[in-house]
Amino acid sequence: MFMEDTYPFRGKYFLYVNLFLFILASSSRFASGQKWDGVVVAQADYQALRAIKNELVDFRGYLRSWNDSGYGACSGGWVGIKCVKGEVIAIQLPWKGLGGRISEKIGQLQALRKISMHDNVLAGAIPQSLGFLRNLRGVYLFNNRLSGSIPASLGNCPILQTLDVSNNSLVGSIPPSLANSTRLYRLNLSFNSLTGPVPVSLTRSRSLIFLALQHNNLSGSIPDSWGGEGNKSYLLQFLTLDHNRVSGNIPATLSKLDLLQEISLGHNHISGTIPSELGSLSRLQSLDLSNNAISGKFPSSFSNLSSLVSLNLGGNLLDNQIPEVFDRLHNLSVLDLKNNKFEGPIPVTIGNLSSINQLDLSQNNFSGGLPVSLDHLANLTSFNVSYNNLSGPVPSLLSKKFNSSSFVGNLQLCGYSASTPCASPPPAILPALTPQEAPKHRHRKLSIKDIALIAGGALLGVLLVLCCILLCCLMRKRAAKNQKNGKSVTKAAVVGKTEKGAPAGGAEVESGGEMGGKLVHFDGPFVFTADDLLCATAEIMGKSTYGTAYKATLEDGNQVAVKRLREKTTKGQREFETEAAAIGKIRHPNLLALRAYYLGPKGEKLLVFDYMPRGSLASFLHARGPETTISWPTRMNIAIGVARGLNHLHKKENIIHGNLTASNILLDEQTNAHIADYGISRLMTAAANTNVIATAGALGYRAPELSKLKNANTKTDVYSLGVIILELLTGKSPGEPMNGMDLPQWVASIVKEEWTNEVFDLELMRDAPNIGDELLNTLKLALHCVDPSPSARPEVEQVIQQLEEIKPDLYATSAGGDSGAKAPPTNED
Ligand SMILES: *[C@@H]1O[C@H](CO)[C@@H](O)[C@H](O)[C@H]1NC(C)=O
Ligand SMILES: *[C@@H]1O[C@H](CO)[C@@H](O)[C@H](O)[C@H]1NC(C)=O
Ligand SMILES: *[C@@H]1O[C@H](CO)[C@@H](O)[C@H](O)[C@H]1NC(C)=O
Ligand SMILES: *[C@@H]1O[C@H](CO)[C@@H](O)[C@H](O)[C@H]1NC(C)=O
Ligand SMILES: *[C@@H]1O[C@H](CO)[C@@H](O)[C@H](O)[C@H]1NC(C)=O
Ligand SMILES: *[C@@H]1O[C@H](CO)[C@@H](O)[C@H](O)[C@H]1NC(C)=O
Ligand SMILES: *[C@@H]1O[C@H](CO)[C@@H](O)[C@H](O)[C@H]1NC(C)=O
Ligand SMILES: *[C@@H]1O[C@H](CO)[C@@H](O)[C@H](O)[C@H]1NC(C)=O
Ligand SMILES: *[C@@H]1O[C@H](CO)[C@@H](O)[C@H](O)[C@H]1NC(C)=O
Ligand SMILES: *[C@@H]1O[C@H](CO)[C@@H](O)[C@H](O)[C@H]1NC(C)=O
Ligand SMILES: *[C@@H]1O[C@H](CO)[C@@H](O)[C@H](O)[C@H]1NC(C)=O
Ligand SMILES: *[C@@H]1O[C@H](CO)[C@@H](O)[C@H](O)[C@H]1NC(C)=O
After folding, report:
1. Where are the transmembrane segments (predicted)?
2. Cβ(384)–Cβ(406) under 8 Å?
3. Which of 106, 501, 515, 522 is the most buried (most CB within 10 A)?
4. Which backbone phi and psi does 625 adopt, to 5 degrees?
5. What is the dihedral sign for C-alpha 365, 371, 373, 375?
6. Where are the alpha helices (DSSP H) in 421-447?
7. Partners of 609 in the beta sheet?
8. Helices (DSSP H) in 169-213: which residue ranges?
């Protein structure tokens, strides 16, 4: 029933299904349209579920379906229950208003993998008996009212992956045994009332990625045993321990966790100095040590934290000067040093932190003037230097942007409000004045305040000179560095090991548990496990010859696109994996990235991609409402994107797409094109590929010579690209019959009769006076691409070049250019 033909466009008709069911049920059963016949639930499981229902308080009547003698429990009749072979594997009842408690009988559900009952009003303790469940992977009980302590027995669940019991009323200490599971990657115990120390065992876990312990009552010092011994790799990326009562020093061994992105230790009783080793954490984006009792100076090694976005050291006892050169922190947007004992000048280089938008230096003992370079910080939205020892005039833009509460408490600072005027000569001439000269000029006695102001000005002058010298030095440095900046830095690889010589060509492998499946991750933004994937809620997006595509929503709310490949069409496992690893390495802004694949125990194969919220180009163009128009720049941007993606495939990866169609081009939020399905033919058997080529022909994207040739080549791809550009120009689908002609023939016939205007999409014609030439030139180029003779067609590289020439300034549409001066192509008859 699920595999019936669905409308290929996202959001028209969809079915909510569970990927899991697809893995379990043999596909032939579904394919032949037979109904899923339920399996009767195992007796022990049935009794356990009854007991669980008895102890829950079902305020809103969600569990009314748990009524019959168990026949329905495993056939989808009982809400929130999932089974395999009559055994319950998942209880999913989040946001159901459920009260009462979770029965200890849950320990009888021997096959249970996942319990998700977060965001209810559950009270009582977390059942000890969860420790009996050898298959348990996920425990999601956050946002409830659970009390008691965390059962140490959870340490007996060998493959536990996620334990999130945050935001409850749990007490007691953290059981060290939680680190027993070698798969645990998310441990969230935050927002409880836990006491005692952070167990040493957690610092040695080689699987943890998220460790969230904030807002508890933890005490003792943080163990200095992170990263264990030797140079093993550790995966921890997020460590949040703020709002506890932790004391002692900041452990220097944190610097061994080279994937760390966030450290949050604020609002504790931490003392000692900041270990300079932390400067080696090249992926660190957020460091919060605020509101502790940390002393010593600002480590100069922090200038190496090149990924840093937010640095909060406020509310400590830090002193000394802040180092002059930390202008390498190009991504720093929040810098909070308030309420410390910093002294000396504010470094001029602060003006080079170009991304900064919040800067708080208040309540320190900074002296000297405010660097004029601060005026260069265009994105500054919050600024505070109040209560320091600063002097001289406030740079002009700063004083306009921020009111006096950003500057008060600096006796010698002037010019930030009507009541604090600077001495009358404008600040620009001030440096020329010395206090002795001033009286002659001004023929009046100077008040102490005036003298102070002038002295401040003089100081500023000296600073300006210094500033110039420094800037010259810096510019030379920058010039040297800019050479390196060409390459883009990939955002932290999520399952961590990707860049560290892990198995399968830079991929991360997870064996998919009881069912014997295997999940292999490539570089990408999401963390998930095989179970997360299989238990995700999925919505059918469309079907192709290769298989069915789903939009899957993971437990953490992230969305991915999953393609389930049709069975018996793929190559054998070893060959498949080699090819998939190669495809998983391909990264280009116009190519849909393969993030992971899953191999089921029976040979089922899932490919996981980024989810593209705006669906396919086909639906974008042809399944929109009459009110929605698509502008010429948007269409052109798509055309160029497709061409660039295709060029990368041809030139850099040596891959022929072979099936480029508007349904295979997906659009992200900004309607940038991402080509999908490239390289997939390499995963498929020859027979399956022949089939695809036949279909592509039927859809009108197939080059004519493919009826004779067996194999696609770069020129047949260029033909498909040409059809897509024609589709963008005409708004017509190549699938629609047009007097027995295909789209290229139809366009050619009209152009031949010199009615060229007739081919363009009507809505484009509205702007014709401005874009006429562009349309015409693009049309010529597209017709060139669909030339019946392959050798006459251009290479993709030339297509890109010409598109860029036609539309050099992509986003300045009809804004005045000379293209508007010429008349549009006219309709001659
Ligand atoms: C059980 O509940 C389902 C759904 O609420 C309902 O359709 C069915 O009739 C009920 N069966 C019995 C025996 O009460
Ligand atoms: C904790 O849960 C309550 C409701 O149970 C919710 O209102 C609150 O926002 C949650 N707190 C956090 C930090 O998530
Ligand atoms: C941990 O739980 C808290 C409260 O429920 C939530 O705000 C936070 O995002 C969670 N963090 C992780 C890493 O799961
Ligand atoms: C779990 O950890 C505890 C202490 O860390 C240890 O004593 C126990 O033997 C471990 N249990 C298993 C099943 O590995
Ligand atoms: C922490 O403990 C103190 C006293 O021991 C108590 O007053 C406070 O409420 C506790 N905080 C939390 C979040 O449990
Ligand atoms: C650590 O890594 C280096 C090179 O990466 C290697 O030479 C050394 O033997 C390793 N040490 C240990 C203890 O594994
Ligand atoms: C920054 O890193 C470089 C290279 O890793 C190192 O040579 C330099 O000493 C570091 N700078 C500081 C101030 O630690
Ligand atoms: C800075 O931020 C940009 C945009 O988020 C990112 O692409 C880049 O990799 C970051 N740079 C570093 C050094 O982390
Ligand atoms: C300033 O902010 C805007 C919008 O947030 C951003 O696009 C721009 O890149 C920022 N500029 C710098 C220099 O970071
Ligand atoms: C502030 O710094 C000045 C030197 O610039 C020093 O004389 C003064 O004692 C410092 N004040 C405090 C409160 O540390
Ligand atoms: C600046 O900081 C001071 C003290 O830290 C505070 O009282 C004042 O409200 C802040 N002003 C702004 C604009 O944030
Ligand atoms: C720092 O900023 C100034 C302008 O304020 C600029 O001229 C200089 O090149 C920048 N230096 C570096 C190293 O970025």
Report:
1. 451-474
2. yes
3. 522
4. -75, 160
5. positive
6. 437-442
7. 561, 594
8. 200-203
Ligand number with the minimum distance to the CA of 362: 11
Dihedral angle computed from the Cα positions of residues 45, 46, 51 and 53, in that order, rounded to the nearest 10 degrees: 110
Cα of 474 vs centre of ligand 7, distance in Å, is 17
Beta strands in 138-260, from DSSP E residues, in sequence order: 138-140, 162-164, 186-188, 210-212, 238-240, 247-248
Query: How far apart are the CA of 155 and the centre of ligand 4, in A?
Result: 6
The Cα 4–Cα 693 span in angstroms is: 22
Angle at 36 between CA 34 and CA 40, to 5 degrees: 145
Q: Is the pTM of this model over 0.70?
A: no
DSSP category for residue 276: G
- The ligand that comes nearest to the alpha carbon of residue 155 is 4
| Cβ 340 under 6 angstroms from ligand 11 | no
Closest CA to 722 of 801, 780, 772, 675: 780
DSSP β-bridge partners for residue 383: 359
391 backbone dihedrals φ, ψ, rounded to 5°: -140, 170
Cα separation, 827 vs 829, in Å, equals: 7
Q: In whole angstroms, what is the distance from residue 605 CA to residue 517 CA? A: 10
Q: Which ranges in 25-91 belong to alpha helices (H)?
A: 27-31, 43-55
Cα 253 to ligand 7 centre (Å): 17
- Please give the backbone phi and psi of residue 454, each rounded to the nearest 5 degrees, phi first: -65, -40
For residue 772, give both structure tokens.
Answer: 């006429």
Amino acid, res. 695: T
Is the CB–ligand 2 distance for residue 191 below 6 Å? yes
Which residues, judged by CB distance below 6 Å to any ligand atom, belong to the binding site of ligand 1?
64-65, 67-68
Residue 705: both structure tokens together = 């010579």
CB 763 within 8 A of CB 635: no
Cα(242) to centroid of ligand 4, in Å? 28
* 77 Rama class: left (phi>0) / alpha (psi -120 to 50) / beta: alpha
Tens digits of per-residue pLDDT, 409-433? 998 899 888 888 887 544 433 333 3
CB 121 less than 6 A from any atom of ligand 12: no
Residue of 307, 311, 481 to test ligand 8 pocket, by largest number of atoms within 8 Å of CB = 307
Q: End-to-end CA distance of the chain: give it in Å, rounded.
A: 55
Please tell me the residue having the least CA distance from ligand 5 atom 8.
217
What phi, psi does 511 have (nearest 5°)?
-85, 135
CB-ligand 7 contact for 129 (6 Å cutoff): no
Give, using CA atoms, the residue closest to atom 10 of ligand 10: 365
- Atom 10, ligand 5: residue with shortest CA distance: 217
User: Tens digit of pLDDT for each residue in 74-91?
Assistant: 877 899 998 888 899 999
- Nearest CA to 600 among 477, 515, 696, 658? 515
Cα of 362 vs its chain's centroid, Å: 34
Mean of the pLDDT values across residues 133-159? 95
Angle at 740 between CA 737 and CA 746, to 5 degrees: 80
Q: What's the gap in Å between 171 CA and the centre of ligand 4?
A: 21
Binned at pLDDT 50, 70 and 90, residue 145 comes out as very high
Residues with beta carbon inside 6 Å of ligand 9? 354-355, 379
- Cα gap 308→656, rounded to integer Å: 40
Give the helix/strand (H/E) hosting 647: helix 632-647
Q: How far is the CA of 501 from the centre of ligand 6 (A)?
A: 13
Q: How many residues does the chain have?
A: 829
